[in-house]
Specification:
Distance between the termini: 99 Å
Number of strands: 10
Radius of gyration: 29 Å
CATH topology of the largest domain: D-Maltodextrin-Binding Protein, domain 2
Mean pLDDT: 87
Strand content: 15-25%
Number of domains: 2
Number of helices: 10
Shape: elongated
CATH superfamily of the largest domain: Periplasmic binding protein-like II
Low-confidence stretches: 1-45
Helix content: 40-55%
Length: 271
């Protein structure tokens, strides 16, 4: 009798273990499927591109990213700074997907260092003289920036494209007196605008687009024969691990839609 009861107990125990194992296997299958689906969602949500972008291009590039993210479900993360600072960050970090700055000469440095692929052209980033609203000193030309007593601010030629281009224009025209009147140099073109609107300076060499729709600033054109037009280049970085996606974003920036957005903010598009 005792033997019979023991046998029944063992049989029941085996059946219970079998049931538990079956349930466990079923749960593992559901869990694996759930984990996989969850991971796919996480990967999709976290897909992103790191874009190093010149500070003066912030307005159009911000709108471009908003549209691109909605249409492609890809997050665009920006680092905004002067071209030299951006180049240093790319070189130091060894990370990033796309590079866009205010001049082809600045972009060429990235190519020479083996950090970026060849570029595509987007829009013009043309230099102009910026003065306070009302132009109180009646500045009409670059020669006026060299007159004694005129407070001038320029971009830092070691930090950004407009600073480097300003020095090339000064060298081209021989107007070294402009540098004698410089009261400050800035790391970005946006800071030049701040100096003018706060009336810390009488004039600056800025870009036409940086003063676009800014009521506190007036522009004085630099004649075409002495001006040095800048073209905005964009391309992929060699550090990208998402080459196809990075190229798609570059193509979108250079598309008719992308150029329309640049034109909306005062950048004449490259045809």
């Amino acid at each position: 009798m005792k033997t019979f009861k023991t046998g029944v107990f063992i049989l029941a125990l085996l059946m219970l273990l079998a049931a538990v194992t079956a349930c466990s296997n079923g749960n593992d299958t559901i869990k694996d499927g759930g984990v996989k689906d969850e991971q796919e969602t996480v990967d999709n949500e976290s897909a992103s591109l790191l874009v190093y972008c010149g500070a003066g291009l912030k307005k159009p590039m911000t709108e471009i990213s908003q549209i691109y993210q909605q249409e492609n479900n890809i997050k665009i993360e920006y680092v905004f700074a002067g071209s030299t600072q951006l180049l240093g960050q790319v070189e130091l970090s060894g990370k990033g997907d796309v590079f866009i700055v205010g001049s082809k000469k600045a972009y060429a440095s990235a190519v020479e260092k083996g950090l970026a692929e060849e570029c595509m052209e987007v829009a013009y980033h043309n230099p102009a003289i910026g003065v306070q609203k009302g132009n109180p000193l009646n500045i009409k030309s670059l020669e006026d920036l060299a007159k004694p007593g005129v407070k001038v601010v320029l971009g830092d030629e070691e930090a950004n494209a407009i600073g480097e281009t300003s020095q090339r224009i000064i060298e081209k025209t021989g107007l070294d007196g402009i540098n004698d009147n410089v009261v400050s140099k800035t790391s970005t073109v946006n800071e030049l605008i701040v100096h003018l609107t706060s009336k810390d300076a009488d004039a600056a060499i800025i870009t036409e687009d940086s003063a676009f729709q800014n009521e506190g600033i007036e522009l004085v054109e630099i004649p075409e024969d002495i001006n040095i037009a800048q073209i905005i280049p964009v391309g992929t970085l060699k550090s990208t691990q998402q080459e196809d996606e990075a190229k798609r974003f570059v193509d979108f920036v250079c598309s008719n839609k992308g150029k329309e957005i640049f034109e909306k903010y005062g950048f004449p598009p490259v045809k």
